[in-house]
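User: quick one, sequence for these tokens?
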């Protein structure tokens, strides 16, 4: 399926859990089953919902990433190696030209 199916499966998860918990409490109040014996049903419903989400999720071939790569050549959130200051690439805002070399010392007279 498409991504819309994933969103529907995620949106239905909360109401299904609330209905399940409400039904379990109603059964407990009616004296049909004590809540101590029915709590595993909540785990089963959670597992079924996760399986449904995975079944409707789009499948990507091995090595293909589901999200587009950034339009620039650097990896997102890249950091300089430890101990080195950050220098933005040339042509980017905030890039300052390197400082001029120090002037040679003049001999003293």
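Assistant:
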């Amino acid at each position: 399926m498409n991504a819309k199916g994933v969103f529907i499966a995620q949106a239905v998860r909360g109401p299904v859990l609330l209905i399940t918990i409400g039904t379990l409490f109603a059964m407990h109040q009616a004296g049909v089953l004590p809540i101590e014996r029915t709590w595993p049903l909540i785990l089963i419903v959670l597992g079924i919902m996760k399986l449904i989400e995975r079944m409707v999720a789009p499948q990507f071939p091995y090595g293909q990433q589901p999200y587009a790569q950034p339009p620039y050549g650097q990896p997102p959130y890249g950091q300089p190696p430890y101990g080195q200051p950050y220098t933005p690439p040339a042509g980017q805002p905030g890039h300052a030209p390197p400082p001029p070399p120090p002037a040679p010392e003049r001999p003293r007279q």
